[in-house]
Amino acid sequence: MANYSTNEFKSGLKVMLDGDPCTIIDNEFVKPGKGQAFNRVKYRNLKTGRVGEKTFKSGDSVEGADVIDLEMEYLYTDGEFYHFMMTDGSFEQHAADAKAVGDTTKWLKEQDVYTVTLYNGAPLSVTPPNFVELEIVETDPGVRGDTAQGGSKPAHLSTGAVVSVPLFIEQGEMIRVDTRTSEYVSRVKS
Amino acid sequence: MNDTTADWKPSVTREMLVRRQQFLSGVRQFFHDRGVLEVDTPVLSEVTATDPYLDSYEIQGLPDCRPLYLLTSPEHAMKRLLAAGSGPIFQVSKAFRRDERGSRHNPEFSMLEWYRPGFSLQDLLSEVTELLRFLGYQGQVESISYRDAFVRSININPFIDESAVDCRQKEQALLSQASECSSIPVSELDLETALDLLMTHKVEPWLKTFGAIYVHDYPASQAALARIETDEYGNRVARRFELYIDGIEIANAYDEQVDPKEQRKRFEDDNARRRKIGKKEIPVDERLLAALPQMPTSAGIALGLDRLLMVLSNQKTLQDVIAFPAGRV
User: Fold this and answer.
1) Inter-residue contact B254 to B300 (CB < 8 Å)
2) Best mutation site among B72, B99, B225, B301 for testing chain A: the one with the most A CBs within 10 Å?
3) What digits encode the pLDDT tens for the residues B256-276?
4) How many Å apart are CA B62 and CA B327, to the nearest integer?
5) What is the interface size between A and B, counted as CB pairs within 8 Å?
């Protein structure tokens, strides 16, 4: 991979830090009066998800990380691996292990498209779209006429996720969920 | 529209253009009222600053000619004017610093520089405060030594050899604190780098708790073109001050060094340091050295106009006050 100098740093750049692939979240250039310049970098470790801070002497360079985000369709799981297929028409398939899929398992629906992050060609993480539409497989019966009042109940979705929904929502309905907050957004009209 | 033309518009509002014009005419009014002469010196020069951590843009003219430089400040030319008897002078000019880019840095920026023959550093400090007030600054104004800023913010004395005891230990403590806040290993740090790290990572954030604050008496190693003297603790300090407002460095002032021998030595030391860190040497400004014996003792200051405008108009970044910042030109 190419090396990046500190003056090429910007948010979103993928670099190797302490042996792990990381993405730069924030980069601040600082320089005291007559002194040396530094770049203060905030980054996310793509393996662990942890956020850290690190300072570089300006002009230093770091190795780029062979990390790429690709759109892939989820096919199936064989119990050990989760299989995805490229959406670019190449039909190329990638198998992600449970560690790579992580919490995203609860949003995985066959034929939906996810962002698969490859590191050195192998899936490192799987990110769901911000919004998914899923069926409610189990929830308490709806309360009619109670659409305006507050109050909510848990609902089990087809993928295994449990989200809080308004009381009037019925079992078997499709709902739209924000995957970043695991919150109910709306009913989906069928 | 494509990527290179979609951002043809200025990054500031028309209101900010008007604000800048009022601000600049305020600056000119202030000096006019005090009989300080406005001058206009070149930004393109055969010689430039030798500071190891200031990088000038090099401009190549004809293939066989020596390169020219876009100046990092108009300092040398203004000192030659002083030596020739100009009296007090000021200048609003563009200055250039290679590879300095961020929310508080733009590689091309507006600088106000002025020199006061016969002024002490304290006289100049008072004048800066009067300028701030004239331009509408209403906050607190305080003053602290570099030493006390370190001691009060992080309980570390930057002058490790102030008392001869435990120098090694004190240096280690300082290096390890610098390493801790930057995650740069101690093995890659020297005392200078560690002080710069602590200044930017620890002391400057602490300075934010003040309004305007003058930091004075820097370690002699950070003297540049300032006179060096001994402070009350017996430390060799550079007679200079920096003005910070809300933790942002705004201006840098010197009790100007006028001894040509000492100045030549500093140029040579800078070039030695540049060689050591793999940078090109800068030709010594012989014309400045020839002029220094005629130069009256003076206090001089360079002030970042874009940053001051940013602070006075409550903006967060330079991109909020510069019509076409780097990346849009």
Assistant:
1) yes
2) B99
3) 989 999 999 999 999 999 999
4) 28
5) 72
For the cut 50, the answer to whether the pLDDT of residue B1 exceeds it is: no
Look at the alpha carbons of B205, B206, B210, B216 in this order and tell me if their dihedral is positive or negative.
negative
Contacts of B12 (CB under 8 A, 6+ apart): B320, B321, B322, B323
CB-CB under 8 Å, B192 with A54: no
Min Cα separation B250/chain A (Å)? 9
Adjacent-strand bridge partners of A15: A22, A64
Dist CA B257 CA B238 (whole Å) = 10
User: Mean of the pLDDT values across residues B85-100?
Assistant: 96
> Token pair for residue B213?
């604050």
Inform me whether the C-beta atom of residue B28 falls under 8 Å from chain A C-beta atoms.
no
| Residue among B53, B99, B100 whose CB faces A34 most closely | B53
Number of neighbouring beta carbons within 10 Å of residue A63: 12
The Cα A1–Cα A16 span in angstroms is 10
Give A17-69 as a DSSP string: ETTEEEEEEEEEEE--TTS--EEEEEEEETTT--EEEEEEETT-EEEBP-EEE
Q: CA torsion angle for A88, A91, A97, A98 (degrees, to 10)?
A: 70
Q: Are strands B89-96 and B37-38 parallel, antiparallel or unpaired?
A: parallel
- CB atoms inside a 10 Å sphere around CB B96: 21
Task: Specify the amino acid at residue B10.
Answer: P
Q: So what's the architecture of B14-140+210-320 in CATH?
A: 2-Layer Sandwich (3.30)
Tokens (6 digits) for B155? 């309980």
List, in order of start, the domains of chain A with CATH numbers: 3-63 (2.30.30.30), 67-127 (2.40.50.140), 131-187 (2.40.50.140)
Helices (H), ranges, chain B:
14-33, 75-83, 121-134, 146-154, 167-182, 191-198, 204-207, 260-276, 286-291, 305-312
Antiparallel, parallel or unpaired: β A183-187 and B44-45: unpaired
Helix (H, G, I), strand (E, B) or coil at A172: coil
The mean pLDDT of chain B is: 94
pLDDT of residue A148: 58
ipTM: 0.87
Are the beta carbons of B157 and B150 closer than 8 angstroms? yes
Provide the shortest C-alpha distance from residue A64 to chain B (in Å): 19
How far away is chain B from the Cα of A27, in angstroms, using its nearest Cα?
8
Judge: B249–A33 Cβ closer than 8 Å, yes or no.
yes
Burial of B107-139, coded b for 16+ CB within 10 Å and e otherwise, reads bbbbbbbbbbbebebeebbebbbebbeebebee
